[in-house]
């Protein structure tokens, strides 16, 4: 009986790593689709229609986007619930952790703490974005997205979400590669340095790509502001 119940912590660890890996792969791919706006409004509209199944089904079905959002939301919730097990539970544990981190000055322990803080922030920022996609799948496109971002002021959410999600993703992949030992143990130090450097570059790349796309959506939204849908106009501005 006890040997069976003892397997659960290991199973939950595998599930947390697997859900984290899937989320990172999704977010990295998503950045390319969403930044199609850099190639022009038609390119972004084409990507939107593709996700709505138009090339295969003959007409767009935004509900397909909602199904993907529901799957991602489930992954986010599972990943967060599993992570909660490892959060410090009260003020005493927090202050002990702070003291240890200050004394140890151990890089990987500090990264773990950054992961706790960014993970906590993501639960609000990412869930907010995904719930919006889930409920308004037909409100995505070059003008719909730009109006939401500029007139609807969603740029504030994305300006926070962008760095936070990419810090969390990069540290997450670093920790996964350390934890599951995907490189030869005899050259551990060399690989640790290489992986860190690669993840710094990936982080910088996505930050630049995301900033350029966000600026483009804001510019289109600004130019289109007087035709933005009623839902984004401030009260009394009709
Ligand atoms: C089915 C799920 C998702 C869909 C369809 C989706 C779609 C989009 C779209 C179309 C945009 C452009 C702006 C807009 O229309 O509001 C966007 C922006 C963004 N999304 Fe998502 N998203 C999804 C999930 C996620 C998740 C899970 C994350 C991170 C945890 C995320 C992070 C971001 C970020 C950071 C931006 C702003 C990027 C920038 O600065 O250019 N998205 N998303």
Automatic annotation (TrEMBL):
An example Gene Ontology biological process: tricarboxylic acid cycle
InterPro entries per record: Fum_red_B_TM, SQR/QFR_C/D, SuccDH_FuR_B_TM-su
One Gene Ontology cellular component annotation held by this UniProt entry: membrane
Keywords tagged on the record: Heme, Iron, Membrane, Metal-binding, Transmembrane, Transmembrane helix
Entries under Gene3D superfamilies matching the protein: Fumarate reductase/succinate dehydrogenase, transmembrane subunit
Pfam family, one: Sdh_cyt
Cofactor dependency: heme
Compartment(s): Membrane
Membrane-crossing residue ranges in chain numbering: 64-84, 111-135, 155-176, 197-220
Binding site for heme b: 30, 79, 129, 168
GO molecular function: metal ion binding
Major localization class: membrane
Function: Membrane-anchoring subunit of succinate dehydrogenase (SDH).
Protein name: Fumarate reductase cytochrome b subunit
């Amino acid at each position: 009986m006890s040997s069976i119940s003892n397997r659960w912590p290991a199973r939950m660890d595998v599930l947390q790593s697997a859900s984290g890996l899937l989320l990172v792969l999704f977010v990295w791919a998503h950045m390319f689709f969403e930044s199609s706006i850099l190639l022009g409004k038609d390119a972004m509209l084409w990507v939107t229609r593709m996700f709505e199944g138009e090339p295969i089904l003959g007409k767009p079905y935004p509900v397909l986007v909602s199904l993907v959002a529901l799957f991602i939301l489930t992954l986010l919730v599972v990943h967060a619930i599993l992570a909660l097990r490892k959060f410090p539970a009260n003020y005493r544990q927090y202050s002990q952790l702070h003291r240890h981190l200050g004394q140890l000055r151990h890089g990987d322990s500090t990264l773990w703490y950054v992961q706790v803080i960014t993970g906590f922030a993501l639960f609000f920022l990412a869930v907010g974005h995904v719930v919006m996609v889930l409920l308004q799948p037909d409100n995505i496109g070059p003008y719909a997205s730009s109006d939401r971002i500029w007139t609807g002021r969603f740029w504030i959410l994305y300006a926070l979400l962008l760095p936070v999600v990419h810090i969390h993703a990069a540290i997450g992949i670093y920790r996964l590669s350390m934890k599951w030992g995907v490189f030869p143990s005899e050259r551990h130090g060399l690989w640790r340095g290489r992986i860190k450097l690669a993840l710094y570059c990936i982080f910088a790349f996505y930050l630049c790509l995301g900033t350029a796309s966000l600026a483009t959506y804001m510019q289109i939204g600004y130019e289109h502001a007087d035709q933005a849908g009623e839902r984004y106009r401030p009260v009394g501005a009709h």
